[in-house]
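Fill in residues.
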């Protein structure tokens, strides 16, 4: 059954303001469920998080926070794309990781009562939600289930960073690129063993994440095309052979 537009929620027996509130409540619960990877998150938990959450917007190109700023809150991305990395003295931003909404920008620093570990910059216009540590601590003291969901979210972030570190240390450049493409590949159900990747970032930003030069990135993409693994048209990458891409991603560098 197809989903109904928001306007269909307006019925003669439901005041317009109540309908808007219901729509906001449903959207809020979806956002929290996505951030906590908890599809069954209840309305009570979502409302409790809403009560302490602070929402703000940041324009594309502006800093969200710097690694010198005190981290008083957990920070998540509700809408848009943001980059984590280091802002250099010449104003250039060296990207280490991209975050696409919904996703966490900093789930850890506030618990350590220090500063953010990296700079964060808005790549597009973004909407952020922040959970002040003090208020969140009080909430979690009264809600064991919500505390468990947050611990699991933090554990997933740690696992992702651990895997990324392993790849940088033990995989050569082709394997890192293959793994990066494979992680972002959406399968094409109508074509077995094929997929599609939409490149949302500039070439130099992708290269920065993979710890290679833009020239090396271009060379590797051409190599993958020559091998018949991918085809590239602008910002669209068609994966022609998913098993081959998966094998390239699993290859580890040979020790000297």
């Amino acid at each position: 059954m197809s989903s109904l537009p928001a306007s269909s929620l307006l019925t003669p027996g439901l005041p317009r303001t109540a309908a808007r509130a219901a729509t906001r409540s449903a959207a809020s619960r979806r956002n929290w469920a996505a951030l906590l990877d908890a599809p069954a998150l209840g309305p009570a938990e979502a409302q409790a998080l809403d009560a302490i959450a602070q929402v703000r917007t940041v324009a594309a190109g502006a800093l969200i926070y710097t690694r010198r700023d005190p981290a008083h809150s957990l920070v998540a991305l509700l809408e848009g794309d943001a980059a984590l990395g280091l802002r250099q003295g010449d104003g250039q931003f060296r990207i280490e990781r991209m975050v696409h909404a919904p996703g966490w920008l900093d789930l850890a620093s506030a618990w350590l009562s220090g500063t953010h570990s990296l700079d964060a910059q808005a790549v597009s216009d973004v909407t952020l939600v922040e959970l002040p540590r003090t208020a969140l601590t009080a909430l979690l003291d009264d809600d064991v289930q919500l505390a468990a969901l947050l611990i699991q979210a933090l554990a997933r972030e740690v696992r992702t960073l651990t895997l990324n570190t392993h790849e940088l240390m033990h995989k050569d450049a082709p394997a890192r690129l293959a793994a990066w493409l494979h992680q972002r590949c959406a399968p094409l159900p109508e074509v077995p063993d094929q997929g599609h990747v939409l490149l949302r970032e500039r070439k130099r930003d992708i290269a920065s994440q993979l710890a290679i030069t833009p020239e090396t990135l271009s060379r590797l993409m051409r190599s993958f095309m020559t091998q018949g693994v991918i085809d590239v048209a602008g910002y669209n990458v068609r994966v022609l052979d998913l098993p081959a891409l998966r094998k390239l991603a699993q290859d580890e560098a040979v020790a000297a």
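Residues 172-250 form a domain with the Arc Repressor Mutant, subunit A fold (CATH 1.10.10.10).
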